[in-house]
Amino acid sequence: MTPRYQQLAERLQAGFGDRLVPVRSICGELTYELAADDLLEVGTSLRDDPGFRFETLIDLCGVDYLAYGRVEWDTSEASGTGFSRAAIRESAVPAAEETFDPRRFAVVYHLLSVSGNYRLRLRVFAGAANPPVVPSVIDIWRSADWFEREAFDLFGILFAGHPDLRRILTDYGFIGHPFRKDFPVSGNVEVRYDPEKGRVVYQPVSIEPRVLVPRVIRDDSRHHLRPGDGSDNG
């Protein structure tokens, strides 16, 4: 971390205390996690405080941490099912009584201070609520408008206080949220032209999900080089 960013980190710590929790970065950037209840107050201060002046929200995106860190390429045992994540069809819309892992869905904010030439990243987890909800920051940064609609469309994250929260990339008949990790690869509905009705209609998807990628790379001696052998031709 450069001295300038170290000084910024010290000012952030002095200004917000334990409301901003540092997140480890391997590239020297400043990333903090904060509670959804603190987002609007902290965001307003970051924009208006002369010591920060983060006037611009340059990006906002959703994140689904389902299966984050799970090993998917096990090379020690053979598998008869292959690489099946997202090929096994599950309900795209969970039951109303179902809750989520509190740290599954998050929203990440990328801020820019034009006057100070600083960048800052914030991360807010949506909690266990179904559907996941975080406050809208549209009244702090107007550029959040389309970004929040995109995160709603792709991840199903609701933004409380957004004046026009509707889909922006998928169409009105689309079912589910395609960037969720448990969304089936083949989707839930397909579109076809119905000559009898004279229009395009939606119907349940008819493609059967298939596992095409092997889950296990087998330990096969045929692919090992002999000592001193510079080729793999045997």
Kindly describe this structure.
15% of the residues lie in helices and 21% in strands. The chain is an alpha/beta fold and 234 residues long. The strands form three sheets. It has a five-stranded mixed sheet with strand order 1-2-5-4-3. A hairpin with a 4-residue loop joins strand 8 and strand 9. The chain is elongated and about 65 Å long.
Would you summarize the structure shown here?
The protein is α/β, with parallel strands linked by helices and 234 residues long.
Summary tags:
alpha/beta; 3 helices; elongated
Number of distinct beta strands: 9
Shape verdict: elongated
Terminal CA distance reads 50 Å
Strand content: 15-25%
Structural class: alpha/beta
The helix/strand series, from N terminus to C terminus, equals HEEHEEEEHEEE
Would you tell me the overall average pLDDT? Answer: 83
Low-confidence stretches: none
Rg computed from alpha carbons, rounded to a whole number of angstroms: 23 Å
Major beta sheet summary: 5 strands, mixed
Order of strands in the sheet with most strands: 1-2-5-4-3
| Helix percent band | 10-25%
